[in-house]
Amino acid sequence: MCGIVGLHLRDAELYPQLGRLLESMLCGVVERGPDSAGVAVYGDTRRCPEGHAAVSVLLPPGADTSGLAVDGALVTPAGDTTIVAAPIDVDTLVERVRTAFPTAVVIGSGRDLAVYKGTGHPRDLAATYGLADAHGWQGLAHTRMATESAVTPAGCHPFSVGPDQCLVHNGSFSNHATIRRELEREGVRFDSANDSEVGARFVASRLAQGEDLEKALLALRETFDGFYTLLVTSADGFAVVRDPIACKPAVVAETDAWVAMASEFRALAGLPGIESARLYEPEPGKVYAWSRS
Asked: CA-to-CA distance for 145 and 34, rounded, in angstroms?
């Protein structure tokens, strides 16, 4: 019974309000997942400055970041999550973080993305992340009621396993173990036992092959069994898909200024212009995708 919210802004005048709006949406689904919460923000140049890559990481207890061998690194802790930003390419930064902290878990990376994960009440975590102060063009958040793996920061959503990519999931995949083994044979590594990570790794592999979000989610729909609602984001997109019988709840709202998705309508009720928005429940098995203009 997890909660999902996401907001894709079309109107640049709303970018300074992204965090405040996303926090309001997150607070509308806290009862759906009191175990933990994760957040992803796209386009906040204070968290990932222009010309920088950023890596979100769960560091081991007592880790000393002063010895991180990255010139010009900006290190910002927020609860269980630490954001490391530096003026180098994404892959190099990820490699250096992993070399410095071999037991750390990288939970996000990109040139436009900051990811936060932690256990505890979602409202408290939103304050820890400084979510209300975030700005940007896109964001998503997830509250978790664990059913498939332990309640730990590493098991939280979103799962961000490709550059500037995120996936949040409500439901369960019944055949995730089989798909995990297939991906492992292809050399894919996993950081948790969470079935949702399998979905994220699958989508990332399809995107790496050159597919867009819509094609990647169509492939997921044909491959995965179970009950699910998914929200997937990338450096330029925002997409939603539900299982073929639409077992898990979802509602979408659209205006000229934004597109939003949530597990419950009350999470959307405070958005500007909601009274004139086009509201609908996504159809079973259909992929809905939007691109940044």
From this structure: 6
Starting at the earlier edge strand, list the strands of the sheet with 278-280: 113-119, 36-42, 138-144, 3-9, 258-262, 251-254, 278-280
**CA count, 13 A, side-chain hemisphere, 90:** 18
Length of the chain: 293
Please report the domains of the chain, with CATH numbers, ordered by start residue. 3-291 (3.60.20.10)
Instruction: Report, in this order, helix, strand and coil percent for the chain, each rounded to 5.
Output: 30, 30, 40
What letter does residue 24 receive in the DSSP assignment? H
Paired tokens of 36: 């933990």
Q: Which residues pair with 288 in a beta bridge?
A: 240
Catalytic annotation, residues: 2
Tell me the three state secondary structure of residue 282: coil
Contact 142, 168 (CB under 8 A): yes
Taking only the tens place, the pLDDT of each residue in 54-77 is 999 999 988 988 878 788 899 999
How far is residue 76's CA from residue 84's CA, in Å, rounded to a whole number? 7
Instruction: Report pLDDT digits (tens) over 18-43.
Output: 999 999 999 999 888 778 899 999 99
Q: Which H, E and C letters describe 107-128, residue by residue?
A: EEEECCEEEEEEECCHHHHHHH
Rounded Cα–Cα distance for residues 111 and 163 (Å) = 8
- Between β-strands 81-86 and 36-42, what pairing exists: parallel, antiparallel or unpaired? unpaired
